[in-house]
């Protein structure tokens, strides 16, 4: 963030500048989360409005989705996000092995979530796909899946760099870990919203 | 510059005089504005138009007050508060006046509440259900409007039966016929994209929304009641316009509301003759085709001088019979024509796109056309040309033969017996 | 206040005699993270798109001189023309143009060295050229012809590949807008100097804050809508196709949930500019500062509740009433602003600079857009004029009479800060006269043709409206011509204009408390803001301004540079 194109703009070296940068990053992340969750809300609106094209939901002749696997996936994701948060606390407390354990477990659970959701996506019945019941489900899980995939990859990159010792030296230096964790929380919140809308609101 | 904060800017007597003059000018100006209300709006041809225009009148008065107030204050400021040349000093340090701010929050809020209540009342009054709708000859009938790129089609489900026991449906093309005092209720459906049915003289507008044809589409409704317009000669015609962008020919997607002076004129001049024509179609297939072709939406895309069509979305039909035999190698003129209508995507004239709607024997389709109708329209098109490629001598066998070779369908040409068939084309909209 | 703050502290001791260098023109063509460079990059590219969109408008008016098709080969060609006109003007001109002024001015007004995220800032800008290429490329394949609103099924089942490119380009522009807005919010909330509370912030910052809040909350809805449109077009889904259980009104709901607030994205920064220009050039504090700031927020929030008034002719009748009421309510905060501005100039000492002329022109024209806005909110009347030239006129009064007039005011006002040279005032006045009357006679008659029965977006129309359209057309050509005056003025003044000095308008906001153009780090030392950004007329303010003048007497652009 400090690449300099011309002139003699000084690198913000002192602590004040670093503190400001951290404050900016945190606020920017919060605004991004508040903003981009609206895209997920937009898809919830899509789902909600298209329900009114049908007399009942799920539409006549379409079996409701099974609850077991998506619920397990949701459980996995929520645990994963909690572990990421625990790992972040451990990272700040310089408990490197605990951080490593938490994030490994979290990424494993995240992968479980993604595999289960991918299976759900792939096994939507033809009857459901002929209606908006199946189409909006694919739209929402697919849209979420793309985000989860990108951010899971980010978690992995940040994890590898963190264990390699790239982010030491205080809170400001550890921003990457914090930011990745916050994005993963975002993925979780977005999914829980979708989970409720897709599987519970009938 | 002295510290003159918290002192209200002084207003010179000159400003008061100007303000008074301006007030006078605004009163006169608003009066003058409102005198234009009838000029800037189409004739008031419906009961609804009167209440809408009254609302507009109120809006213009209130808008005019705001307009003259703000422009007036602006003008006064510009004249009286300009810095004298060479004056480099600042104006008074006056940060605001809470009382004034409350006033100019409360008053506009009150005005918009008033306008909202007024608009709500007008709206409720205009949408109040009528006791009877579409009364014709003592019966309530259904009038349907179909919008397709780029033409309107109006159909009257008369409720009367023809000799075969089928309901007679009048297709009046892009014209809606009505009479003063008839409460019109239209059911609107679109065959393709969103259209919007607007009759400026009636101040009514309604979008046509695509729905699922399998479940009867997504009909919308439009209601209005024509009233007498002073100095108008009847029957009077008012334009129908498409107000929602629908593609290439959007601007040409027009029609007319024909208002008759009373029900007896409506019956005499439109309704009964139309039913008579359906029950007694001309025996000559060419004449029948000429009537039929105008009931379909062909004019929305094609040019044909003999019927005064001038659309350019599709290829011109002028002299079509001269070219029909040469378009596709191996096809006779009759074969080319019947295929171009029933199987419109089979061949696209170079320079045009595959936009033409499907006309075919499927009676659930909005553009349904049975074999007899195809026969008559082909016969009519065969006359459009100087030295036609068609075999006009043996029309009664050549066209059925073309239909037979193209679609494997036997056509039994029995005009006179199947009278009324031609009228029951738009079955998609029935009950 | 007894403390007369001297803006630049230690700098006062350094004579600041070294001449300020203007960035070389080539720096504007390169990747740069300097907000001032990025601001100019936004400004120049947006203005070029303004000329492109304007040329399209000229072609539209040329076509409409006669009631038949003549200039265009087909209705489709005309449709794609106004589709592109709308898209270019909204997404490539007005929205990025406000990013231009926001970028250049906001960090300076806050006394900051740069935006909060300089790299993100540059990235947001550099998304625009590829997005523009994608959108305009559509024009050369099978162009989008469903209007900038792109209602399905016209935009899904009945349009060519240009529509897909249009949606992709709009997607990129939306992402750019979100990133830029996050940057503005963080900068404004986190990087104010000591002593500048939110309630002492210049009103342009308030307006940019409100705008950015709208943009971050609404633009994701556009992203959602465009995703659905793209899927329907390329992946065979049926979200908008009723035969597959979809709903055409779904698009209208989601699209307008973004696009109505987008109107405020386009006009709120203009209102911020107006507060600055009117106060500075009439030498008087902004009347009712808090209410002006708060009304920006009020407009932003109420703006989210009015979207369905665009659907008055398609929505279920019983749902139309609540949207009529919310739409009318939005007139109240707008009215507060209008009256506060009048209160600001009332009793002041007005300098008729070009910037001030355009600001006064905004007041005089925007009020008409406001009045017709309330008329359109009145449901029974809207049913008549919905989708007619009345609506075209209304939104041009808001977006041209409002936004573009404000853009011109901002240009004349901040040009000296950006380039170190003054614009030519005589040409500025000529420009104003042509623009004002060209605009008035172009757009006012449109109300009347609309009410008389001319729908919008038509290439062929009832010959009864020919004379009206010829009047509109000729005025439009005058208006189009007027933009060349300002192009000439900008180029001429860039090279030959008189050297501006740090604070040519003697303004109290911080962007004037540094050299023109500002150095790379904006300020040599942390500047101290005056206690009230609009506290004109006090001894303290005069002393502060004199101190600024004294500090920068020897600095500034050397008259020989360039």
Describe the structure.
With 202 residues, chain A is mainly alpha-helical. Chain A is 77% helix and 0% strand. The longest helix of chain A is centred in the N-terminal third of the chain and has 37 residues. The N terminus of chain A is likely disordered. Chain B folds into three domains: 99 residues; 142 residues, Cupredoxins -  blue copper proteins (Immunoglobulin-like, Sandwich); 143 residues, Cytochrome c-like domain (Cytochrome Bc1 Complex, Chain D, domain 2, Orthogonal Bundle). Chain B is of the alpha+beta class. The radius of gyration of chain B is 31 Å and the shape is elongated. Chain B contains nine helices and 14 strands. A five-stranded mixed beta sheet of chain B has the order 5-4-3-7-10. In chain B, strands 6-12-11-8-9 form a five-stranded mixed beta sheet. The longest helix of chain B has 34 residues. Chain B is 35% helix and 17% strand. Chain C has one domain: Cytochrome C Oxidase, Chain A, CATH 1.20.210. The radius of gyration of chain C is 24 Å and the shape is globular. The N terminus of chain C is likely disordered.
In short:
The complex is a heterotrimer of chains A (202), B (431) and C (562). Chain B has 431 residues and is α+β, with helices and mostly antiparallel strands.
Name the descriptors.
heterotrimer, A: 202 residues, mainly alpha, Four Helix Bundle (Hemerythrin (Met), subunit A), 0% strand, elongated, B: alpha+beta, Immunoglobulin-like, Cytochrome Bc1 Complex, Chain D, domain 2, five-stranded mixed sheet
In helices, the fraction of residues of chain B equals 25-40%
**Topology, number of strands of chain A:** 0
Strands of chain B, total number: 14
Average residue-wise pLDDT of chain A: 89
Shape of chain B: elongated
What low-confidence regions of chain B span 5 or more consecutive residues with pLDDT below 50? 1-9, 416-431
Overall shape of chain A: elongated
Which sequence of SSEs, written as H and E, runs from N to C of chain A? HHHHHHH
């Amino acid at each position: 963030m400090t690449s300099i194109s011309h002139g003699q703009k000084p690198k913000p070296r002192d602590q004040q500048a670093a503190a400001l940068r951290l404050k900016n990053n945190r606020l920017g992340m919060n605004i991004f989360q508040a903003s981009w969750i609206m895209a997920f809300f937009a898809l919830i609106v899509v789902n909600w409005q298209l329900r009114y094209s049908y007399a009942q939901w799920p539409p006549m002749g379409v079996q409701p989705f099974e609850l077991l696997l998506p619920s397990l996936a949701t459980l996995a994701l929520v645990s994963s996000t909690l572990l990421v948060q625990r790992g972040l606390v451990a990272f700040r407390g310089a408990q490197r092995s605990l951080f490593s354990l938490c994030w490994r477990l979290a990424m494993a659970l995240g992968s479980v979530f993604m595999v289960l959701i991918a299976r759900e996506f792939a096994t939507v019945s033809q009857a459901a796909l002929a209606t908006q019941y199946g189409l909006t489900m694919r739209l929402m899980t697919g849209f979420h899946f793309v985000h989860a995939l990108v951010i899971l990859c980010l978690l992995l990159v940040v994890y590898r760099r963190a264990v390699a010792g790239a982010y030491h030296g205080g809170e400001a230096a550890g921003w990457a870990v914090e930011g990745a964790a916050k994005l993963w929380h975002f993925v979780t919140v977005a999914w829980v919203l979708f989970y409720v809308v897709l599987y519970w609101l009938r | 510059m002295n510290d003159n904060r918290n002192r209200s800017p002084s207003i010179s007597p000159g400003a008061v005089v100007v303000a008074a003059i301006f007030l006078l000018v605004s009163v006169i100006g608003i009066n003058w504005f409102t005198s234009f209300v009838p000029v800037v709006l189409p004739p008031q041809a419906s009961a609804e138009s009167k209440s809408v225009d009254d609302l507009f009148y109120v809006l213009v008065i209130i808008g005019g007050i705001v307009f003259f107030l703000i422009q007036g204050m602006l003008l006064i400021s510009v004249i009286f508060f300009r810095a004298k040349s060479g004056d480099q000093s600042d104006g008074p340090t006056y940060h605001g006046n809470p009382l004034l701010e409350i006033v100019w929050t409360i008053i506009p809020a009150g005005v918009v509440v008033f306008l909202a209540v007024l608009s709500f009342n007008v709206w409720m009054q205009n949408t109040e259900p009528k006791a009877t709708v579409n009364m014709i000859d003592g019966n309530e009938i259904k009038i349907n409007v179909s919008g397709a790129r780029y033409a309107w089609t109006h159909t009257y489900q008369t409720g009367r039966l023809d000799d075969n026991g089928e309901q007679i449906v009048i297709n009046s093309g892009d014209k809606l016929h009505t009479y003063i005092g008839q409460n019109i209720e239209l059911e609107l459906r679109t065959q393709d994209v969103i259209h919007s049915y607007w009759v400026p003289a009636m101040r009514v507008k309604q979008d046509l929304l695509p729905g699922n044809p399998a479940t009867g589409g997504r009909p919308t409704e439009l209601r209005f009641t024509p009233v007498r317009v002073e100095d108008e000669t009847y029957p009077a015609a008012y334009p129908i316009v498409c107000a929602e962008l629908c593609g290439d020919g959007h601007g040409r997607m027009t029609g007319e509301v024909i208002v008759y002076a009373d029900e007896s004129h409506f019956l005499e001049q439109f309704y009964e003759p139309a039913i008579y024509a359906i029950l007694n179609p001309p025996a000559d297939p060419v004449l029948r085709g000429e009537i039929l072709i105008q009931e379909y939406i062909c004019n929305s895309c094609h040019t044909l001088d003999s019927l005064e069509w001038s659309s350019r979305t599709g290829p011109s039909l002028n002299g079509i019979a001269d070219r029909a035999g040469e378009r596709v190698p191996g096809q006779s003129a009759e074969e080319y024509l019947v295929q171009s209508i029933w199987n419109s995507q089979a061949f696209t004239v170079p320079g045009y796109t595959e936009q033409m709607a499907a006309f075919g024997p499927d009676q659930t389709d909005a553009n349904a056309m049975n074999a007899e109708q195809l026969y008559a329209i082909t016969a009519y098109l065969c006359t459009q040309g100087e030295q036609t490629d068609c075999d006009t001598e043996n029309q009664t066998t050549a066209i059925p033969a073309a239909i037979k070779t193209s679609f494997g369908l036997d056509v039994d040409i029995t005009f006179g017996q199947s009278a009324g068939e031609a009228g029951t084309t738009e079955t998609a909209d029935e009950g | 206040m007894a403390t007369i703050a001297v803006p630049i502290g230690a700098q006062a001791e350094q004579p600041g005699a070294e001449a300020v260098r203007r960035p070389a023109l080539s720096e504007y063509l390169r990747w740069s993270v300097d907000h001032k460079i990025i601001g100019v990059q936004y400004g120049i590219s947006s203005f070029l798109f303004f000329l492109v969109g304007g040329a399209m408008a000229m072609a539209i008016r040329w076509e409409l001189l006669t009631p038949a098709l003549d200039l265009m080969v087909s209705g489709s060609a005309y449709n794609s023309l106004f589709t592109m006109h709308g898209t270019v003007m909204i997404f490539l001109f007005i929205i990025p143009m406000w990013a231009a002024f926001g970028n250049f001015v906001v960090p300076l007004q806050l006394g900051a060295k740069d935006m909060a995220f300089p790299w993100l800032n540059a990235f947001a800008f550099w998304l625009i050229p590829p997005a523009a290429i994608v959108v305009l490329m559509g024009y050369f394949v099978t162009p989008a012809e469903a209007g900038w609103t792109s209602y399905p099924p016209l935009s899904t089942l009945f349009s060519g590949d240009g529509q897909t490119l249009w949606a992709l380009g709009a997607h990129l522009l939306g992402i750019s807008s979100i990133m830029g807005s996050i940057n503005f919010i963080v900068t404004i909330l986190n990087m104010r100097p000591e002593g500048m509370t939110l309630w002492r912030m210049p009103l342009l910052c308030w307006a940019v804050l409100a705008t950015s809040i709208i943009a971050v909350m609404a633009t994701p809805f556009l992203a959602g809508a465009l995703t659905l449109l793209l899927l329907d077009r390329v992946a065979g889904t049926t979200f908008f196709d009723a035969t597959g259980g979809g709903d055409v009104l779904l698009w209208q709901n989601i699209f307008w949930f973004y696009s109505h607030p987008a109107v405020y994205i386009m006009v709120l920064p203009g209102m911020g500019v107006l507060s600055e220009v009117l106060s500075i050039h009439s030498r008087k504090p902004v009347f009712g500062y808090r209410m002006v700031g708060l009304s920006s927020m009020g407009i932003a929030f109420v703006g989210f509740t009015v979207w369905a008034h665009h659907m008055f002719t398609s929505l279920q009748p019983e749902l139309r009433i609540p949207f009529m009421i919310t739409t009318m309510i939005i007139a109240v905060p707008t009215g507060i602003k209008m009256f506060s501005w009048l209160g600001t100039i009332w009793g002041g000492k007005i300098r008729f600079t070009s910037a001030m002329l355009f600001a006064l022109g905004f007041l005089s024209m925007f009020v008409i857009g406001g009045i017709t806005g309330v008329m359109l909110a009145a449901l029974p009347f809207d049913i008549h004029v919905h989708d007619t030239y009345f609506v075209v006129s209304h939104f041009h009064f808001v977006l041209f009479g409002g936004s573009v007039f404000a853009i011109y005011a901002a240009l004349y006002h901040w040009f000296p800060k950006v380039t170190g040279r003054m614009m030519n005032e005589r040409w500025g006045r000529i420009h104003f006269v042509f623009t004002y009357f060209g605009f008035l006679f172009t757009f006012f008659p449109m109300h009347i043709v609309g009410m008389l029965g001319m729908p919008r977006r038509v290439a062929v129309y009832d010959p009864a409206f020919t004379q009206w359209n010829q009047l509109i057309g000729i005025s439009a050509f005058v208006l189009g011509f007027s933009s060349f005056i300002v192009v000439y003025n900008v180029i001429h003044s860039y090279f030959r204009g008189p050297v501006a000095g740090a604070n040519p308008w003697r303004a109290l906001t911080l962007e004037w408390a540094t050299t023109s153009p500002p150095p790379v780090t904006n300020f040599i030392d942390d500047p101290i803001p005056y206690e009230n950004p609009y506290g004109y007329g006090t001894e303290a303010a005069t002393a502060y301004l004199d101190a600024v003048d004294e500090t920068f007497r020897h600095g500034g652009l050397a008259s020989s540079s360039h």
